[in-house]
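Dear Dr. V.,

Thank you for agreeing to look over these. As mentioned in my earlier message, I'm a first-year student in the group and I'm still getting used to reading structure tokens, so any feedback on how I've presented them would be very welcome. I ran two proteins. I've put each sequence directly above its structure. The first is here:
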Amino acid sequence: MTRGPTLPAHRSPYLPTPLDAFNLAPADEARALLTRCLGSGRWADRLAEHRPYPDLGALLAAADEAAYDLSRAELAEALAGESLPRLPQGTYSAAHTALDAAHAAYEARFGHVFVISPGDAPPEELPDRVLEGIRSRLTNDPDDERVVVAEELRGLARYRLAVHLGGSGCRTTSDYAPRPRA
């Protein structure tokens, strides 16, 4: 008598999410991921120490709360790790020229790279969003701009966390990735 094929081994229907992996990762790995989202050591330490997070919403709320407490020096640390967003392929050279001039004016005025959170803007709208943001923010005084920068950094951190830990369906971070750390 022949027997049928053996049944495959039972597999758990539970598949770990990126957030599960983050919650279970060693502290130094969690901090490394966090500093790719916002280049502040204290911010990354605070979030890593408070793991596990029950869901992405709880992590994002904790990230916001931790970012509100950043000092001027910690904001400067985070800004030092930022770079200009890459423009989508096919962006006209005139747009590059206009953005290069606007970035130079912004950096001359405020002493750091321009940062802006992507929000829900599609990548093809990036050049217009950045140029409009720079032009409108060049009129800010340094103290007002510091407040705006802190808010934009919080938004960038939330965006990057959602991309890294939100699972499938998230947009790539290539346009809003911070400068790699040495």
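The second protein is here, in the same arrangement:
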Amino acid sequence: MIRLNMDRITAAEVFVEIVDRGSMAAAAQALEMSPAMVTRYLREMETWAGARLLHRTTRRLSLTPPGEQVLARCRAMLEVSAAMAVPGTDEADPVHGMLRVACAPSMAQTALARALPEFLRRHPRAAVDLRVDSRAVNLVEERIDLAIRITNDLDPNLIARRLADCASVICASPAYLAEHGTPATPSDLSTHNCLTYSYFGHSLWEFVDTRGEHLGVPVGGRLSANEAQALLCAAEHGAGIALQPRYAARDLIASGRLVALLPGYEPKSLGIHAVFQSNRQMRPVLRALVDFLVEWFARQQ
């Protein structure tokens, strides 16, 4: 019985690793097992479950409906196994395993690239696979454990924890302003070349003035992009006026390469959120990373 239970725990580890890594070959390498052994454990897991757990094609693996249920149970089993480790040994730390984390390029470069090394030093048995993409990825289809998103429009089907506020700034290069003039009010932006995001060919920039009144200004220009860093770089080189996260533009403004505009009007603030699928059966490594990011962002204020 003990041998059977240990085999099931190992099989659960193998199955979770296959799903997290996206292939049996990658799981075999991570677990330092032969591919044949990984295949054997997967077959045993499917035998115990009485169902096929994975769709296998030459290009990718995907979970079957029974596979999704078994995956949740395997993660729960491994949490219990980790919690039973003997205190005083390395196995007592339940924060272990691989996390797939998704975020936009600007967030990766200015925040997570600095935060994640500290998290990994605290938890030597944890690992992170950072997926950098401008689009909002589908957490379920792409097997993402955690997404960091800057938005006020959250998916009601997902769980979100607010990490920080994201203040924005309107900015342009000194060269652009010397040639085209400096806007004094948000309505002046209609006569300027504004660098916008590629959403339906137009953009609405929202502000709060010193009296607390809200106003929205339709803007447009000859250059748009789906990635904030590209627009920031274009603004630095005189392409137009940009709306940027303050954390991304801070150094360029401090060095004089960009100028902050419209001091009497504050662009609408957004929230920085950690987004994940469920609080139920949340792995300790995921909970630890979310808690750490709350702490890390608080220190940056």
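From my reading of the second output: The radius of gyration is 24 Å. The longest helix spans residues 2-21. Does that match how you would interpret it?

Kind regards,
E.
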